[in-house]
Amino acid sequence: MNNLLIVGQYVPTNSIVHRMDPRVKMLIIFFYVIFIFFANNVISYSLFTLFALGSTILTKVPWRFIVKGLTPVWFLIVFTFILHLFVTREGSVLFNLFGLQIYSGALEQGAVISLRFFLLILLTSLLTLTTTPIEITDAVESLLGPLRRFKFPVHELALMMSISLRFIPTLLQETEKISNAQASRGVDFRTGPFRERVRAVIPLLVPLFVSAFKRAEELAMAMEARGYRGGEGRTKLRELRVVKRDVAALVCFIVIAAAALITRDYS
Amino acid sequence: MHAIEFRNVSFRYEEDQPYVLRNVSFQVETGEWLAIIGHNGSGKSTIAKLMNGLLFPSEGEIFINDIPLTEENIWEIRSQVGMVFQNPDNQFVGTTVRDDVAFGLENRGVPRAEMMERITSSLEQVRMHDYLLHEPYRLSGGQKQRVAIAGVLAISPRVIILDEATAMLDPLGRKEILDTVHRVQAEQQIGLITITHDLNEVMQAERVLVMNDGEVWMTTVPRELVKKQTELQQIGLDVPFVSQLAHALQKLGVPLTEEPIDHEELLDTLWTLHSRK
Amino acid sequence: MDITFEKVDYTYQANSPFEHKALDSMSFHLPTGSVTAIVGHTGSGKSTLIQHLNGLIRPTNGKVRIGDYVLEPKKKPKHAKALREKVGIVFQYPEHQLFEETVEKDIAFGPRNFGVPEQEIQKRVAESAQAVGLRADLLKRSPFELSGGQMRRVAIAGILAVRPRVLVLDEPTAGLDPRGQKEIMDMFYRIHQEQQLTTILVTHSMEDALAYADQVLVLDKGKKYMEGTPVEVFSQRQALQQVQLDVPEMFQFLLKASDRFGKPVAYQGQDVERLAEQLAALAGDPNE
Known about the structure:
The complex is a heterotrimer of chains A (about 270), B (about 280) and C (about 290). In chain A, about 65% of the residues lie in helices and about 5% in strands. By secondary structure, chain A is mainly alpha-helical. Chain A folds into 2 domains: about 20-130 and about 240-265, no CATH class; about 155-225, no CATH class. A two-stranded antiparallel ribbon of chain A has the order 1-2. In chain B, helix 3 (about 95-105) packs across helix 4 and helix 5 (about 140-155) runs parallel beside helix 6 (about 170-185). Chain B is an alpha/beta fold and about 280 residues long. In chain B, the strands form 2 sheets. In chain B, strands 6-7-8-3-9-10 form a 6-stranded mixed β-sheet, with helices on both faces. In chain B, strands 2-1-4-5 form a 4-stranded antiparallel β-sheet, covered by helices on one side. Chain B is globular. Chain C has 11 helices and 10 strands. In chain C, helix 3 (about 105-115) crosses helix 4 (about 120-130), helix 3 (about 105-115) packs parallel to helix 5 (about 150-160) and helix 4 packs across helix 5 (about 150-160). Chain C starts with a strand and ends in a 5-residue tail after the last helix. Chains A and C meet through helix 7 and helix 9 of A and helix 2, strand 6 and helix 3 of C.
């Protein structure tokens, strides 16, 4: 299952993109997602495509992995394209397909929207391919920093995110253990009528909650014993720093985005 | 100066509940190794939680370096009394080894440059520096506990409490922890309190506090403690193999002058007896 | 029920970068009515082995026989549930599997899943509660109000109430104090004898392996490393130390004593008292 979808999977190739400041990566993606909707001609689309493909090459993640990883997305992209062929009736009729007239506008629009869709997915998956969840957490904490002034609990939110990340493998293991134990006591999780299977979840969920609460309690105590008293007066080991390569990446993006915005059709 | 002193401490969770601890008094000296033993539910872990202000006594007083422990100074106290808990998973806060050791330092506002130094040196002390960027799920229980010890060492406390820190480990993990603790204690002038029901662990300590049903049953040294085989068994504890053997020998009339603490001591005595013939 | 492993391999996540062979050509035979201790380090394959015993997983290669049941690769066993009824597994920290509102209901959970008639269930709950030493007045309480030791007994009663013929114990004494450990082990041994079970004990305690097992199986990196009676296995200290295990303290002491006195002091099933007599004789009779 894991091999099917790459969204959310980290591939450690330690490329220049991996080493970039996660905040810069997130900012670039954020504005890319907005600006791509302004592209409306060959040049502007080419520029955005160039940026996305160029970034992908820089990540050193093998193409095969990315192409395979986007499998479920390909289906959507092709589906979007075909849908446009059928519904759009603009431009001249190009040819007749089993009694259905295919318009040039349909072909064009279908291609454009599929491309846009593809680029969006590609660039956002580059973020998770090159950035560990904890780096994303740090970036979120830093980018949301200004909200602190409005009493928004930025530090607490980031801490919650990082503790969740830390405990996901632990809880998965626990789930497997309890499910094995209950299966040994005759619970059947896999077959039987739907209602039975829903009921079979109770002996799994109750122990899981009990243990999660116990863990939470012990963790809270351990954190207190280790001097945790909220975000006030805390220093941070993980330090995000914008360095030359981040500036270079930003400049690249700004140049390409500006060029695309200038060259788009304004008529 | 006592590193830790309990003066007539009693504790219960709620006013209408029975006491978990009753009139407990003892002292721990600076640089000393004290073992606290007792059956499950004897109050050992409650003592640990009282020592760094995770709980407060219902009656009596606790002094850390002769300063009374109060709600106002607990944060100061917690940098002097470090604690390692039983479950290796439920005290690992960071997403990697390095982040976890950093946690205590971050909480105390230690500047970043100094943090890096302290992380390196404390991980070296527990021999975990090669695992700097490992995530917790890639570590064994013993390794996680060593990281927890490093996290405590990084804040350079005066006293470290191991609250059944080896109870969930396999024999190899247990040995790792005890070796680590031994080394750290030898290298630094640091007080050590180990809470356990493993009597072999107790034999290495300098002094022993035995708890039974919320009361101090006795405070003594390991060599004296193991003489009380029958009494210990009555409160759900046992003595090590070598002590059982020594007592069986004494029953047979073999004159053992001193209570042996390990195999070698017992064999030495027996050999001496043998050679005198 | 006889248990036989024939060249069993088990591979996790085959054909992926995370491929990991947890069992490697494992073969052994455990006769009906025996107690077998399985020792080995974390990661030696113990828990993978256990999961084969009631068909939670099937071998990647080879064959597992438990009585008349056969587990083979790629062949879904027909009577998976019947097998689970016959093989009771007490997992590590079994108290973590409790979930019902009352102790009674939790003990009844297994038998009910296996379709035991209601009247019979009541009988079994009472019986197994008694077998593990739970007071009858605890049956109506919530399992979560009990002490850790009592919770463990409830979980064990829940497995015994299914009336398995094979009992698998995974570190059953973990986290208990010395008295609790001895009580639980003695209890299992009594039940083993009374109900004539085939028992498999996974343990770190060489003392328990020596005290309770008829045969010992030593695992290392998914392979069978040693096999034999406790005395056979524990007389090979060096081989055990190579896989970072050790012999029971009694054996350690006997080796040192043999060394010191220059003549062999062998293990003959002696207890501490008997050993003391031997040593006294060696040191010279003090009354002479």
